[in-house]
């Protein structure tokens, strides 16, 4: 063969190999995308199809969201019509589930199923544009199962509950933002998609729980130091500001929300050093593993930005978990580890695809290590989801005893229900019976305790101007509280339990006002029922 022909054949073979490599890459990308979509849809279906909530822990917390969904169906708007330090999405998510199903038992599972589906586009864009297909699938499944698992982070699978589901949403939103530390593998493409994804994640964070939104904003401010990605970061921050202005135009509750946040911060904003050290101790194994991955990439890169990124994953994670009611689950460590391993692999290969020196472990070995880091929580959350689905399909447990709560069911945790919780559940039944036995149909009922289960459970009109919940020394104490003339301005009936969750300190705080403005109309061994003392000079509309 002549030299000229040999060169031509060699060029053809090179092009063919390149096309085959590109085709293989596309196939891997599409298979990874399909895997994430399938897992997401399966998890969403497992939540939504049984149409029931199975609970074994924090039932009082779950009732906050049910009550909030009920308020929204009556036209109430969070922060404008009732006080809450949580973002409005915490109530609109179960409200959407309730409006779709007409069932309070299905409200939160259906709402979370919709959250999973809505998260998929941003998840696919961020993960597949920055991580290898195997890493993208592993981290994507990890995120999906955090959203889907009906347990409080760190809890046993034998304690199913949708309590504090907003924390799982916030962790996933922040985790996806942290993955964006990596530049897309196709530079210059997809800036608009990155900006839209970041805006979505920031808005979800802010309107679920502001702590996560502030952490995400702080991270994007740090990302302005990346010239390669600065364009979409600036666009995302600007669009988020514009979107929040538009939301405020319709919501008109931002100022009230900030005041509710400040009120809660005055009660529980301080966290001492022992609580921080406790969280470090309980997450020491995860912190150690993350430190190992950090050491690998820092030893290779020797870059200050990488060091700051590692510090942010630790500091932001510890700051957030120190505010939350779960001891395990610094999710920033897991997504941060995946990012660092991806970055370490890129540094090892170098720009020409060859070894760049300073190898600690082979790239594939590092990927296997981080996937093994993700595996235990993946299995744990999978088991929690499967168990909840099975219990919901069997209609396990007992309902809470109110007419509209048949599919909101309580199962005994290991060792049986504590006596205190059993009395609390029994009091819901007796309180509902008391209200239904009143001569006139009840409405605008307020429970002087943690939460009001009766408005939703009986399908009656809720009062306005009150609060979604009271948690002593968390969002109320003797120094920071809603004035009684504001709290009870639209209340017609007050239910006071003899043994509530935090009823005794609330009675000391609001008891004098009740005695002055309300009359006792019923009294049992479990409840005292007050009715607003109507005077002739007052309008009949009260």
UniProtKB/TrEMBL annotation:
It comes from the Bacteria. The chain crosses the membrane at residues 29-49, 82-100, 107-128, 134-153, 165-183, 195-220, 232-251. Keywords: Membrane, Transmembrane, Transmembrane helix. This is Dolichyl-phosphate-mannose-protein mannosyltransferase. It comes from Rhizobium aethiopicum.
